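Predict structure. Input: Protein kinase domain-containing protein, 538 residues.
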Amino acid sequence: MGNSQGKPVVLTDEVNLNHFRLLRVVGKGAFGKVRIVERKDSGLTFALKYIRKDEVVRSESVRNIIRERRMLEHLNHPFLCNLRYSFQDVEYLYLVVDLMNGGDLRFHIQRKAFTEDAIRFWMAELACALRYIHSQGIVHRDVKPDNVLLDSEGHVHLADFNVASDFKPGKPLTSKSGTLAYLAPEVFRGTGYYSEVDWWSLGVTMYESVYGKRPFEGKTYDDLAESICAANPKYFITKPPVSMPCLHAMTSLIEKDRRKRIGGTGFDTFISHPFFQSINFEALERKQIPPIFIPSSEKTNFDATYDLEELLLEEAPLEARARKQKPRAELRTDATTREIREDELHRMIETMFEPFDYTLASYEVSAASAVAGTVPDEHEHLDTNQPISHSVPTSPDGSPPLSPNTIPTPFHAEESFPPLDELRAALPQTQTQTHIRPASSSKSFSRPIPPQRPMAATRQPSKGGGVQMVLDETGSWSNLADQTPPVPDVPTGDLHGKDIKGSGSMLGFLSRKKGRDRSPKPKEAGVIGKIGARHIIN
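Output follows.
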C-alpha cells in the first residue's frame, strides 16, 4: 500500500493552501484560475483565485494585484464578492472570496432573455454596491456582466477589483483602465474622470441584459471609441416590448453628459427614477426582498471546460502546490537588468501581499485610506498589445489607449453619501412597493458578513414580461411592428436536412429525455425564454 498518511494539518497556523480541500475549477483569468474550495475545519465553501507570480511580474501588474488585495481587505458589503482570506507561496498568490455558485451575469444573458423585473432587481442591487464602494473612495472601472456574480439565491455581487482605484475630489483619474466596450466617453478624452464612469458601465450592462447585445460596436478600436464618444445607441422595438420607464433608465445611465447621468450626480437620482422607484432600497440592502430569478441548483452555472484544462494541460496542477516547495533561487551576481527588476518585483510581492483572515478583520478604515500611499496612483493602463476582440469576452481584455481629446473642466463627484433613509424621506412615496420580508434588527455592515452555506433554490411563479410601451393614449410600439408570425423552429437533422431523431433511427434514443414524456418545461421566474425570446423587430 502507498503512503496515505500526510503531515497533519494544523488549522491554528496562519492560513495556507493545506487548510482547504480543492474542488472543481470554475473560471479562468489572465494570470490564473478560480476554483471551489472547502475549509477543512468548518466545511464552508469559498472561491479560490490563484494567480501565478511569474505572470504578474512579467506583465508588470504587481501594483494592481497589491492594490486589489488591500482594497478588498477593507470592503465588506452584501452585494460585493467579499475577501475572506489571502496568502501566498513560492509560485502563487491566493485570494479566497465568497463562493457565488449561481454563475456570472454573462453566462445567463448569453443563454436566456430576462424580464424587466429581473433586470431591475439586478441593477438595483448593483447600484447599492456602487454607492458603497464610492462612499469608500473607490471607483471600480470595470463594471460588466463578467464581473457580476450571482449567488445560489439569485442576489448579485460585484467582483474583480483588479483595475479599481481610489479617488479624491479635485484629483481626477486619467488612465484608460477597464474593458473598452464599457468605458465612458470621458475616459477617452484624457482630462480626468471620477466615480460617475461606473454608472455609465452599469447602463451598458443593463442595455446588454435587455437586448442581449452591446450598445456600441466597431470593427476597429477607433470605430468603437468613436461610437462610445458619440453616445447614441439604438433602442430597438422588440416583442415583447420594452417599457418606457426601462428605456428611460437606460438612456439616463448611458448619458453622455455626466452631470445629467443618474447615479453619478447622487444616489437619490437613481432611486427616484420611475423604473426603480417601486423598490424599497433599505429592505433591498438588507436582503429582505427575494430575487426574481433564481439560478438552477440542478445545473452548473459555469463553463465545465476549465476543470478539464487544469487536469490535462497544466504541467503541475494546484493539488501538487500543497506539498513543500523549493524556495525561489537567489539572484546571481551577474544578473541582467531585467532579472534584477523581476527580483525587485518578487520581493515587493513577498513583502506587500500580506496574509488576511476575515475572522480577525476590522472594517473601520476606508478602502481608499488603506490603499493611499501604498502603491503609486494610476500606474496601470490598458494593454496596448491586446487585439480588439469582436466576440463576447470572458475576461477583462485590454485595448490600446486613444489619443486624448479636450473636454470641459471635469465634474466633481460628491464628497459624501447621505444615508438611504434620508434620501427616501425626501422622495415622493409610491403606491407600489416590492414584497418585503420581516424587518431585520440590524442594518450595519461594520462586522464581517459571514459566508452563506449553499441553499436549495425556491421557485416562484413567473411575473411575465415587460410592461407595454405606450406611445400615446391609444397606441403602443408593438402596434408599429411587423405582425408576421415568427418562423417555426426547423426540426433537428443532419447537415443534409434529414431527421436523425425519429424512432426508427439509430440515434432515436436522443429524441427526448427519459422520464419526462414530452411534458412542457415549467417557466422560470424572471425568464421570458431562451436567448432571442425578446425578438428585435426594428
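The first helix runs from residue 53 to 58.
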